[in-house]
Amino acid sequence: MNAAWKTCLMLFYDVANMYFSVGVITALTFGIIILLRPVTNPLLEPRDRVRLWSFGWYCSYTAYIWCLYGRVKVLPWTFRGLLRLRLEEPSQTPAILPAPWTEGAQDTLALPGGVKIFCPLSQGQMMAIGLVWLGMVAAVLVWSTRTEGRLKCLGQQGERLPPESVAEFGLDPKTVAVRLCDGLPTSFVRRGHDTGAGDGVQYVICLQRELPPERMGLVLRHEGEHIKMRHPWWKMANAISMALFWWSPLHWAAYRLTNRDMELACDRAVLNQLEPEGRREYARMLTELAAGRHLWGSVSAFGECDAAIRIRRAAAWKPEKEWKKPLSLVLSVLLILFFFTGGWAG
Fold first, then answer.
1. Residues 61-102 pLDDT 10s
2. Are 73 and 342 a contacting pair, CB within 8 Å?
3. Model pTM above 0.70
4. Which three-class secondary structure string do you get for the chain?
5. How far apart are CA 21 and CA 15, in angstroms?
């Protein structure tokens, strides 16, 4: 085999091994977080739950950053420390699959927890699986890019609101554009410019033109909260991670729950600003508009998911207790430290 070709194959295999290993580890992490939700949900604000999820999403697709956080050890015990990973030299990235080109390497799968089992796959079979994985990654990314492109074209056909109307809702008209559009599946906010790369716009909110004015204002408040909480950026990380880990059911479950918590966080922020009659109108609007639609990528849609849960939360709204915010923040930081730091040694 040509030396240069073999080097390329080894590099590709090492990258695939790294992402497979990180995918297994983050799937286990997300699985534990999901199991803990009955306990943590009453204590964590939706905004802090999004922070916990998003830390995992960013760590999973920036695998070397994930490894770097392993050097940070604040707590005496961490979830990562319990996994006892096999690490690849010299990068110190996790390696569950064997290294078929390494002289003297064992043909074993090094599972989290120190368990080793024989790997029956040949070098060629593992490379074939790696190529299938890469092909699916490319397919998901192409689909995501085309979906966002269609939404962008659809939004640009709408009528742009004047800057003073945008400013009325606490949004900066220099960085946020709002368009009223016909034929939208749901209202949404996306990252990116509006009319051109030099227009200074960072986010575009697309609203359904048929909405009554009072409901249009509520939807605009909701989408504005997505912007304030940087959700389109978080969702970009989620979408990239899902392209890498399309094979993991636990990642899909975590993706759905992350989107739900984003919507609940924005619902909560809007409800906190409204009077009782406004909150009742918001709940009625959720009943009519939150139809379970999902838009892929960095797009945050108003009616994206779990309408029944959002309606119940809106109907049961109560003022936040002063002590709950700091408790929620501290608990979210502790969970981040427990799940995503420590455990460097293999």
1. 887 787 788 888 888 888 888 887 776 665 566 777 776 655
2. yes
3. yes
4. CCHHHHHHHHHHHHHHHHHHHHHHHHHHHHHHHHHHHHHHCCCCCHHHHHHHHHHHHHHHHCHHHHHHHCCCCCCCCCHHHHHCCCEECCCCEECCCCCCCCCCCCCEEECCCCCEEECCCCHHHHHHHHHHHHHHHHHHHHHHHHHHHHHHHHHHCCEECCHHHHHCCCCCCCCEEEEEECCCCCCEEEECCCCCCCCCCCEEEEEECCCCHHHHHHHHHHHHHHHHCCHHHHHHHHHHHHHHCCCCHHHHHHHHHHHHHHHHHHHHHHHCCCCHHHHHHHHHHHHHHCCCCCCCCCCEECCCCCHHHHHHHHHCCCCCCCCHHHHHHHHHHHHHHHHHCCCCCC
5. 10
CB 44, CB 328: distance < 8 Å = yes
CA–CA separation, 271 and 222 (whole Å)? 9
| Residues contacting residue 8 through CB under 8 Å, at least 6 positions apart | none
Asked if residue 107 lies in contact with residue 118, where contact means CB atoms within 8 angstroms, the answer is yes
What is the separation, in whole angstroms, between the first and last Cα of the chain? 32
Closest CA to 267 of 254, 252, 283: 283
Between helix 123-156 and helix 231-244 the angle, nearest 10°, is 150
List pLDDT tens digits, range 261-302.
Answer: 999 999 999 999 999 999 999 998 888 876 545 665 656 666
